[in-house]
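Chain A, query sequence.
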Amino acid sequence: MSEKDQLTSSPSTTSTERTAKADVSGVSRRRFLGGIGGAAAVAAIGAAGGLAVGAKTGQAGVEDDLEAIGDASSATAATLWRDACFKFRVDAATFNQGVNLPDHVTNGDEARYPSRIGSFTKALPHNRYGEVDSYAWSTFMAAMNSGSPAAFENVKLGGGRPMTNPQSGLAFDLEGADSHALAPLLPPPALASSEEAAEMVELYWMALLRDTNFDDYDSSNLAADAADDLSKFSTADFKGPREGGQVTAQTLFRDPFPGQAVGPYISQFFHLPTPFCAQFVDNHNRTFLPGSDHMTSYSDWLTVQNGGAVGSIAYDPNRRYIRNGRDLSAWVQNDVLFQAYFNAALILVTPANASQGQSGGSGAPLNPGNPYAHSRTQAGFATFGAPGILGLMCEVATRALQATWYQKWFVHRRLRPEAFGGLVHVQRTKNRWPGVLHPSILNAPVLDRVHSKFGSYLQPQAYPEGSPVHGSFTAGHATVAGACVTILKAHFDENHVLSNPVQVTPDGLGTVPYSGPDLTVGGELNKLASNVATGRNIAGVHWRSDSVQSMLLGEALAISIMRDQRAGHNETREGFYKGQTFTKFDGTKVTV
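Chain A, predicted structure.
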């Protein structure tokens, strides 16, 4: 496979249920750029994408130019430097123009259902069954297909909530793979599939278990019932991790990433003290009161689907460490884009020093491939040092959002779990769409538990507004998580064992020492990404496939940016820097 091919990820050809009936959707980049015109369009295309490691288009030419600069006068050297930078940018753009773009494969639901019941329609007007108004849908799709800012202003909304920034999915950037140049490995499951049903069963159980502490799953009858119920699905339908072929208390609601199933559910980076230079950040959090669930009545549900607002959050008067799904849902409601990973980076980069008391960090060593790891005369700083690592980790976040926003608005437009819950409720009570939803969701025992507790078959939400007003696939939180954690794994020694790990007390007010299997930097970073991504599932606003595929998408995006940057680093000259190796989410190694 060529380097250009490696920059893209294409949907797997081995998935029969998802890809066999899928179609290709999304705004055509060629058609969209046709409206830019002439040289501007060429320049825009050339600016997108990411330069692969070792591409002769950049580094070889730059080395020759730098030698010439070293022999020139200061004035001439400045001109040569400017021209070398220009050449590098042009070469990088030319390289990325030739990168093979992936097919953006959907699950086919949008074409399959004329009523659009399988698509994201939140904030548009709906009828009493939750089916979108056809004219409103046509105004929505006119904007999606044209990319015209004026067309977005003409979309007919149903209530007061606006669409969340669809045009960001069409943004260009000058670094890393363009938003159109990456695709999830698999499209989301289809509406009527058994995999979609299995994911929804998991989401109902997540809602029922929000107030059960993660550390209590091994003694909870409710958690045992959830694990038994999910174990009945085949591994092709339910893709969560298992032990001995069964979902267990230790694997429940976790992801199949290296280190993910080791130790407590919540990553140490949510609990360890966070040194913030001269300040100190305490990791107690504002959370919701137990039982604070929303959108459980059909009238509330329909109001929210139309863009309205119902209800409010009841906050716990005490701040607590994250101990259960309710606490985690509260944390991921309004977190700063790269907050969890910036905190983790501060913990990792700050030396462990007992004299510093609470402001000491973990003192994790840098990746063994760091070019300054064995330098006699230099230490990293703006490149390959703490400021450079912290800045790059934040830098990938906005690029990750652009990549995921293109998938959300212009490719998949996947319905949110709350909308699927509305379909389940209407079908169970009105038989509106016979034969559409898979029997394993309509006959799921968990539905009777939900109905007994809430009086409906709707999916209970952690937030009164339910999901944001943008499609479900891919997931913003998860894509950013995948990107930021990839940066950290690439720059720190992932095999380093964290010292003084902790566990949260049952009331969430404090921590106690953890005793158990070693917790490594790599495993706890994987866990951190999963906690944030899965926390959105537990809150009710995303699916398992959203979170997993999005973390992989963010990982690919971060690797493309690091490759772009490496081609411009002086350290790559004369073999000074060989690259940094780390473990990807799928367990394979990569060197960047």
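The two ends are 17 Å apart (CA to CA). Residues 386-412 form the longest helix (27 residues).
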